[in-house]
Amino acid sequence: MTVRIPLPGKDTPGRVLVVDDVEANRDMVGDCMELASHEVRLANGADTALEAMRGWEPDVILLDVMMPHVNGLQLCRRLKSDPLTAALPVLLMTAMNDRKLRVLGIEAGANDFLVKPLDPHEVAMRVRNAIRSKRLYDSMKRAHEDLRRLEALRDAMAHMVVHDLRSPLMSIGLCLEAIRSGAQAGDLSLIAEDATACIGITTTLTEMIGTILDVSRLEAEAMPIEPGSWDVAAIIEDGVARVREGARSPISVHSGPVVVVWDRCLVARAIANLVSNALKHSGGKPVEVRCVDHGPDVEIQIDDAGPGVPEESRERIFEKFGSLGTGSDKRNATGLGLHFCKHVARAHGGSIGVSRIDPTGARFWMRMPRLAVSPADRTGVGSTPV
Ligand SMILES: Nc1ncnc2c1ncn2[C@@H]1O[C@H](COP(=O)(O)OP(=O)(O)OP(=O)(O)O)[C@@H](O)[C@H]1O
Ligand SMILES: [Mg+2]
Description:
alpha/beta; Heat Shock Protein 90; five-stranded parallel β-sheet; elongated; binds adenosine-5'-triphosphate; binds magnesium ion
């Protein structure tokens, strides 16, 4: 996933706090800021300024230096020493073009100076620049937080991979030992049986690794879809065929001929994930797969009669490792299945969600445009029946 830093707009209006003990000055600067479409708050001293900042974060402070009680330099020092407000640009307003006062202001951490009598145009330009710097700082801060979150996810993923790949690898080791014993005993049927088990585990392992790679590529938008014209019934059949073998519940498919332009392989794998989940949770009761034609959109529904998904978890399960710790078989589970499905739906310009079915059960649905479109600004996850 790429972390993008949006550049601030050309003349973004911002939130401006004007602090001056002289009412006429405050109002003059305030009017000038309002004229430039900024949201303005006025304060007559340090205490009222701090009060104004409670629950309202300005983008810039215009601060008079000469004020009774706590002067502008003291307030500036205080703001700059607090990590929460240190990045807030402070523009000191001073009556004198006094070098000593400027040096004191710089020492206090002020970002810029406005010399009285103020020139409205100059003030507007300096405020605009300060807002731009603040916005850039905010964007970089958000990007940094995103990176840290991604780093934590990557660590979790590495941990999960190491942990979850260990048990199938151990099983492969055991199978190979059994094959060696079979070879020593000349027992061909034992060798064939263990080799088959070995192949099965290797297939599962390969699929797990494939899912991990696909999720990374889809997140990085580095996996373009390859849409082709297909009958949905054929795509569903592909998906169901991947999980039908050994299924503990009957799977019934209801789909008439509906032509779509989708990536057959990706959608079939998403359907396989959804049906495999339904099988895990249905407790042996039938699983139904259906295609509903909504005109420009086509929806695939997978219903099971299991315990369903609690409302508060219906967004979370689509996140990476969003497992709720339910289901009868947690072996070889990456917790990436639904996350993968979400990306497949998004890559087609569609969405995915889960709803409840009566009297008990879950309906997972993927709704995508008949003609796959690039995802514009859709969120990709829904939680209400469609
Ligand atoms: N049909 C369902 N009924 C109830 N809960 C479900 C159902 N499908 C998924 N879930 C819940 O959502 C979680 C996430 O599912 P997901 O497919 O992403 O991971 P997984 O099934 O645990 O692992 P994997 O897909 O890698 O085998 C599951 O662990 C389960 O808690
Ligand atoms: Mg799953």
